[in-house]
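User: ok so my PI wants both of these folded by tonight, can you help

Assistant: No problem, let's get them done. Here's the first:
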Amino acid sequence: MEEKKQSGDPKEMSFWDHLDDLRSTLFRIAIGIFVCMILVFINKWLVFDVIIFGPASSDFILYRVMCKLGNLLSMPGFCVEPFNAKIQNITVGGQFFTHISTSFWFGLVLSFPWIIYQLWLFVRPALYDNERIATKRAFWFSSTLFYAGVLVGYMLVFPMAFKFLDIYNVSGRVEQIITLDSYIGVLVILVLGMGIVFQMPMLILLLSHIGIVNKAFLRKYRRYAIIIILIITAIVTPTPDPYTMLIASAPLLLLYEFSIYICKQ
């Protein structure tokens, strides 16, 4: 089987050979995710106290940058009042199972380049030399976009959404209690969601190569794209407030303009 694969001719491989190759690829992907998951699991302090619960304190880098910017522009309203949100667990074993599930999601994010590489190895034998170069670049470009989206989701979208929702109240009678499950759930959805929607340039680039879209088309329907982006961010962001939706949509609007730039004529 290996000799057939190395020859680069997919016709030499039978259906069962392809199926076996796919199974091996999925197994290597699973091993990569599991290894990263273990690394995350044993670094509990770094993952939770520093990364996950970082935005739950006014010491988070985004809040400090906003305060410095506000002082520079003589706009004290940019500064966030000191706070340190309390996260509560209300279920037996909740912290342990949250530790496991969070380790999986972090392991998935960390192993993304490994997943991309394994998928590239799987499809490579079926491609011609020129297609291999283009596809390899596309895979790694997709990985870069994913991490850019994760970074924007963690550094910008989630902290702003959390701060807004933490201070929002319908009545002074209601005590704000943030549960561990809800906090982690919103964090995962926003961060991974932004990583996924940051694949928009890849999708547009693919459609442009097929001949479905071009620069003129994207410019012509820019206003409709803005509406679609707002709808996508409304679905991705689990909070109903327009404030969070606008923050999440700003990077996507920039991505759309970038997509026009990289699109074929």
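One down. Here's the second:
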Amino acid sequence: MPDLRPWDLRSRYDVVIVGAGPAGLAAAVGAREAGAEHVLVVDREHEAGGILQQCIHHGFGLHHFKEELTGPSYAQRYLEQVLEHDVDLLPDSYVLDVDPSRRVSILSGRHGLREVDAGAVVLAMGARERTREAIRIPGSRPSGVMTAGFAQKLVNLAGYLPGKRVAILGSGDIGLIMARRLVLEGAEVVGVYELMPHANGLTRNVVQCLHDFDIPLHLSTTVVRIHGSERIEKVTVAPVDEQFRPKLDEAWDVDCDTLLVSIGLIPDNELARSLGVRLDPVTTGPIVTSRMETSRDGVFACGNTVHIHDLVDWVSQESQLAGAGAGAAAVGTRASPDNVRLIPGTNVRSCVPHTITTEREHTVYLRVTTSIAPCTLRFGDVYERPLRYVVPGEMVTVKVRPRFLQDFHGGNLTVHVVPREEATA
């Protein structure tokens, strides 16, 4: 990752971006293309690319680059674009604070403590994994219990195999991908245990990573105890009832030397909280406009910092929009304000962005609460679209064009996903 000498760091930038993962890199490109002349990207890691650097499997870029890439290849494509746009990259550095006037405090081991003024700020810090402590699994605290993402880093970047007989709690995409990866490296994956009655990862990952490798998936099942002294020796698993209470009389023990935890991601939002940005209680990320601006003027957010995405392609699309919004705000070409507020309705858990306008085309990202097939997506009474199916583990992505809302003049618009027969009744 290119470095900056201390005297090259400007005292003011049009746009400062926190995070050099896929969201931050895309935002930097968007900001420059929107007219921002001086853009700075700050990241705590030594290399740009974020989590993509440890995702060596294929499946990235099919939507954005129209070809199948590995994670590092996808990151490299964007890094090349960032360098072509003459963006300043500051690695091995931490953003300590962003104050209401958008003065950014940066701490770097090589450059010391610096303060930079910004015309606009983009929060693109990504997300972190939930750990064992987040769900308080009873039992001892032996070695061999780790998150799926950490195991991926051990295997793909450090070259270490975390264990030989592995159980996986949770069916998030990283856990599914690591189930396959560990089998390919010679380990035995004894099973994936998911609390919900459905998988939480993409259907393609369930098929390609579990079914194709004969790895059992136990739905409505969870780990209720961890056993072991120095090293984990086994786990006790049990089915759960409709209220997710373990049926301990039906529990059984599974011998293993490793337990991977893949129970979801949490948007990294300490900076947003310190700024007083309004957060969505469902996604736990910032509430954003159609240009990805938060409730704090001049502060934008994108990627997994806002809500957890299935595909990095959608992260790039959303983040380039956020960067363009930040760049426009910094140079004084801000778009007209939104006039429509999206409200989650029947079977809709969350909607991002939270507001849109009737004047432009938007991509809206939805999460549902229940699987339905076939079904219909409805925006109030003004627009509806048939869908083959929806499942909680897969994001629904829909383009909303101005002609769909031509008879709607602003206000609240409730979004529903209902069974097909109910929509046509």
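The chain has a mean pLDDT of 93. The two ends are 57 Å apart (CA to CA). Good luck tonight!
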